[in-house]
UniProtKB/TrEMBL annotation:
<protein>
    <recommendedName>
        <fullName>2-C-methyl-D-erythritol 4-phosphate cytidylyltransferase</fullName>
        <ecNumber>2.7.7.60</ecNumber>
    </recommendedName>
</protein>
<feature type="site" description="Positions MEP for the nucleophilic attack">
    <location>
        <position position="157"/>
    </location>
</feature>
<comment type="pathway">
    <text>Isoprenoid biosynthesis; isopentenyl diphosphate biosynthesis via DXP pathway; isopentenyl diphosphate from 1-deoxy-D-xylulose 5-phosphate: step 2/6.</text>
</comment>
<comment type="function">
    <text>Catalyzes the formation of 4-diphosphocytidyl-2-C-methyl-D-erythritol from CTP and 2-C-methyl-D-erythritol 4-phosphate (MEP).</text>
</comment>
<keyword id="KW-0548">Nucleotidyltransferase</keyword>
<dbReference type="InterPro" id="IPR029044">
    <property type="entry name" value="Nucleotide-diphossugar_trans"/>
</dbReference>
<dbReference type="GO" id="GO:0019288">
    <property type="term" value="P:isopentenyl diphosphate biosynthetic process, methylerythritol 4-phosphate pathway"/>
</dbReference>
<dbReference type="InterPro" id="IPR034683">
    <property type="entry name" value="IspD/TarI"/>
</dbReference>
<feature type="site" description="Transition state stabilizer">
    <location>
        <position position="23"/>
    </location>
</feature>
<dbReference type="InterPro" id="IPR050088">
    <property type="entry name" value="IspD/TarI_cytidylyltransf_bact"/>
</dbReference>
<feature type="site" description="Positions MEP for the nucleophilic attack">
    <location>
        <position position="213"/>
    </location>
</feature>
<comment type="similarity">
    <text>Belongs to the IspD/TarI cytidylyltransferase family. IspD subfamily.</text>
</comment>
<dbReference type="InterPro" id="IPR018294">
    <property type="entry name" value="ISPD_synthase_CS"/>
</dbReference>
<dbReference type="InterPro" id="IPR001228">
    <property type="entry name" value="IspD"/>
</dbReference>
<keyword id="KW-0808">Transferase</keyword>
<dbReference type="GO" id="GO:0050518">
    <property type="term" value="F:2-C-methyl-D-erythritol 4-phosphate cytidylyltransferase activity"/>
</dbReference>
<feature type="site" description="Transition state stabilizer">
    <location>
        <position position="16"/>
    </location>
</feature>
């Protein structure tokens, strides 16, 4: 049986957070940010294994203070990150048991609130189309600005999509594209761009406005409010 694996990227430095602690290790309701996505993937029945990618100096910390402490299951391997995000992804892809992998989901640890249905739909659409990514429609009007700060025009909001993670792919396809990318010396900002660069299409499906990426101190305030909302819903069930 072909299996599905999640690669969780936790090797980023998070310089915009302005903290000496990497953002994925900051405490959110007495648990590290990294815990939440690992927990969600580990309890999803469609996920068979998790590869965690982190800084080489954080491997033991993650093993002892996150995985063992919070009893996170399905961890297949912890591998070191690379110089760039795409290098970290390739390291993660190389650690996946290639002979049995069907779909691989690539997720940023800085997005703690990935939901069960986002994971399920990502796998479903990746199986159907080869590649899929969740995201949301922008609520604001988006302008194009010139170098002097003047507006050049307004984009059609109905055609815009703010991409989130996880981004989900046929394993052989994304591995082949990432290896080509490395050979060609091209830099990209996310994995959908890797796929698209080599002529493949990505299906976009609904994510969640709660699936925020923690980047700045203000995001931690929003994250705490999401936690409070989840706790309130649980108490009212």
């Amino acid at each position: 049986m072909k299996k599905n694996y999640a690669i969780v990227l936790a090797a980023g430095k998070g310089t915009r957070m302005g903290s000496r602690v990497n953002k994925q290790f900051l405490n959110l309701d007495d648990r590290p940010v990294l815990y939440y996505s690992l927990h969600e993937f580990s309890k999803n029945k469609l996920i068979h294994g998790i590869i965690l990618v982190c800084g080489e100096d954080k491997i033991e910390y993650c093993r002892e203070n996150v995985i063992k402490r919070f009893k996170i299951g399905k961890i297949v391997d912890i591998v070191k990150g690379g110089t760039e995000r795409q290098d970290s992804v390739l390291n993660g892809l190389d650690a996946v048991p290639s002979h049995e992998c069907n779909i691989v989901l690539i997720h940023d640890a800085a997005r703690p609130f990935v939901e069960d249905n986002i994971i399920k739909n990502g796998i479903k659409y990746a199986e159907r189309y080869g590649a899929s990514a969740c995201g949301i429609r922008p609520k604001d009007t988006i302008k194009i600005a010139d170098k002097l700060g003047f507006s050049l025009g307004t984009l059609d909001r109905s055609k815009l999509f703010c991409v989130q993670t996880p981004q989900c792919f046929n394993y052989d396809m994304i591995l082949d594209c990432h290896r080509k990318l490395k050979e060609d010396g091209i830099k990209v900002t996310d994995d959908t761009a890797v796929i698209e660069h080599y002529g493949n299409k990505v299906y976009l499906y609904d994510g969640s406005y709660n699936n925020i990426k923690i980047t700045t101190p203000e995001d931690m305030i929003i994250a705490n409010s999401v936690i409070e909302k989840y706790q309130s819903l649980t108490l009212n069930v």
